[in-house]
From TrEMBL:
Signal as UniProt keyword: yes
One Pfam family hit: TraB_PrgY_gumN
Species of provenance: Luteimonas salinisoli
InterPro entries: TraB/PrgY/GumN_fam
Keyword annotations: Signal
Domain of life (superkingdom): Bacteria
UniProt-recorded name of the protein: TraB/GumN family protein
Secretion signal span: 1-18
Length: 354
């Protein structure tokens, strides 16, 4: 998963869309590497007596069924929803026949809710802004990471960085949020998991093969002057210490829980998915950007609620016109007491778990 804020900045200029649901975010394309920032390739970290234990063997592999689907229905019309999680086991092959069959038999596929930031710039002019986007990772005041966060938090960063990022010196000049996400992605890889999407490519191929129309559910944010927006972000502060600390805590204590949740998804264990913790750092990290003056002016401070409302509207419309519709949403959204399924149920729809 590309770094959250870098993705948000990229869409200012490149017209990409960031999928944001229940505190997690992803976008494409990722920014190119910045050679000057990383003069040395990170070494492959060796085992160390730092109290961190890798338990990659606990992650399942091979062909796995994945979870069943939630069923939302009324008046003989059905919306099938596949719950998704991230990360997932890296060496897993998803046995997706059931989902492909439901997509083929449906009249519509609802894409996951996403936020699309757009500007009037063309592709060539947008690419000219990439160097400015890359600078957004750096602390605007020239401080190092060690100087940007409290000493006790930085002391926790040091052994984690040594284990998962090796001798990557460039990251020490990044803002805490960007540095934390770089570390998180490396820790996920070392733990036998992946943040790459598994469900979306399968659904897209099935919909294309069977000519099932896909309906985007997008909250459009228009950036009139992306160059000024990027400059404002580059020069402004970020309240991202909490994001940095929360990400370190997840790596220190929650890798086992993430493995268990990934295994539960792969094995189709809905009870385990419901019981799994979903205390993700993304809620805090995204808040660091949405509470800036720039984000408030763009109307982003309550975008998660807006995305939920848009998805509910699209789901009800699809249920009204189709005999069968397929959608996918994060499991955490589905099992929460105030999640989207609960809101559909409150509107009179029947909801059945897998």
């Amino acid at each position: 998963m590309p770094t959250v804020l870098l993705c948000l900045l990229l869409v200012f200029s490149l017209g990409a869309s960031a999928q944001v649901a229940d505190g997690a975010a992803s976008a494409a394309p990722a920014a190119p590497a910045e050679p000057a920032e990383q003069p040395e390739q990170p070494e492959q970290p060796a085992a160390a007596d730092d109290g961190i234990v890798d338990m990659e063997a606990l992650v399942v592999s091979g062909i796995q069924p994945g979870p069943g689907l939630w069923k939302v229905s009324r008046d003989g019309r059905v919306l099938w929803i596949l719950g998704t999680v991230a990360p997932l086991p890296r060496r897993m092959q998803w046995m997706s026949d059931e989902v492909e069959g439901i997509v083929a038999a449906s009249q519509e596929v609802l894409d996951p809710p996403s936020m699309a930031m757009r500007s009037g710039l063309g592709t060539f002019r947008s690419l000219l802004l990439v160097p400015s986007l890359l600078k957004a990772r750096r602390n605007p005041d020239g401080l190092s990471l060690e100087e940007s966060v409290p000493a006790e938090i930085y002391a926790r960063w040091v052994p984690l960085k040594a284990r998962y990022l090796g001798r990557n010196r460039g990251v020490e000049r990044w803002r805490p949020l960007f540095a934390a996400q770089e570390l998180y992605e490396a820790a996920i890889r070392r733990s036998g998991m992946t943040l790459d999407g598994v469900v979306a490519p399968v659904v897209e191929r099935a919909a294309k093969r069977h000519r099932v129309p896909r309906t985007p559910v997008q909250l459009a944010i228009v950036v009139d002057d992306p160059k000024d927006a990027i400059r404002e972000f580059n020069e402004g502060p970020l309240a991202d210490t909490d994001c940095f600390e929360r990400t370190l805590a997840r790596i220190e204590t929650d890798l086992d829980a993430m493995r268990e949740r990934a295994n539960a998804w792969a094995l189709g264990d809905i009870a385990a998915l419901r019981a799994a913790p979903y205390d993700e750092q993304y809620v805090v990290c995204i808040r660091a950007i949405t509470e800036t003056g720039l984000a408030r002016r763009l109307g982003m401070e309550n975008f998660r609620r807006q995305l939920g409302d848009l998805w509910l509207e699209a789901a009800e419309a699809a249920l009204a016109r189709n005999a069968s519709t397929f959608a996918s949403l994060p499991v955490s959204t589905l099992v929460r007491e105030d999640g989207l399924l609960a809101r559909l149920q409150a509107r009179g729809y029947a909801v059945e778990e897998p």
